[in-house]
Amino acid sequence: MLLTLLLLAFNADKAVSKPADSPDTMETQASSPVDTTAMMSNDYITASLLVVSPSAEPYSLFGHCALRLQCPDHKMDYCFTFETPTDAKGLYNFFRGKAMGGFAAAPTKAYLDYYRHAGRGVSQHQLNLTPQEKLMLWQQADKEIVRGDSYRYNYLHTQCASMVIDLITSVLPAPVGYKQLPAQTDGSFRDQMLTESVPYPWSRFFWQTIMGPAGDETGPFEHKLTPSTLPEVWRQATLSDDNRHIISGDAETLTTTASVSSATIWTRLLTPTGVFSLLLILVVVITFGQWKWGWRCLPLFTDSLLLAIYTILALGLTALVLLSDLEATQWNWYLLVFNPLPLLLWAVRRNWLPVICAALLVAILSLLILTPFVAQLDLPHALLMATIGIRTASSCKESLITNKEFTITFPKTLKPQKA
Length: 419
Fold this sequence. Notes:
9 strands, alpha+beta, 419 residues, elongated, 14 helices, seven-stranded antiparallel sheet, single chain
């Protein structure tokens, strides 16, 4: 036993000394302390749930959570966190629906330093587990690290919160009895996203853009528990066999969230609704100037900007729907408007421009009418589509005036006959 303890202490010191720029670069195997349950006091191992505050990035919208395991006798203190890469390759795999994730272990000091420098708060919630359950939990965490990135990342069902929940409940002797659940767990995955994204309107715009009708499914309520809602839910939840609460005591703040200046008129304007409202007003003025006073430069610049936005959305949504396995992207309402077909038709049949514009206007008008009735369709996208619709109508009118080649031909049998 003494040799085992010495080896454990040596391995722990070696792991802690390994440098890392961020927690997800650490993939050390923090071997669990070997001892018998009879030799352990209740505080031989301490198990805690760590919750990281959200940030403005779409992938951090719901915050983050991890498992912290400490063994003071052997000076071992690690955070076990479910991660998926967020570098360029990782984001590419995410949009392809091929991202893989797994648990990694980082020394707690490195883990907290990373989020402290990022200005994100971290709170700690102690798990009310028996000594045997805590030892089993550490052993299970070690096994997960050995597995590596073996889970296909699924932002609806397989993410940090659901994986930490599964890891902890795997060592519990009985099912968890939930007393009170957040309101958003009764709704769809989209309802959950809309609730959590209130402080981050651009992240909401991103998820509303890519999350199709499949996001309106309800799914298991456990998969809709987010890092921010999980501690309070588990503080009230109990095990069905002994009525034991899973989280005990008060939360402890380990790092504080960086202060954010209060909202100003500029921060309100720089939301998707504010930006696209201003753009719509400008486009109305520019279009009026084009037909009233013969403006040319401003309409041309506006059309180039809108064409760039349209092309990016059209190619991105088409790739998600047709080429990606990403969850909730198998169909998308916005694909009716933002798709490459009008661009392709215009490239091969320039004289078809009036018909192309008319078809696009019908699609835009249809989605604007459906906006109050379809969960994915919202105000910022409606403003953007209306803006594009105004310039499309203007182009259609100009094309009918200037395009002398555009004619509608009839089959011979339908041609009017001379009297």
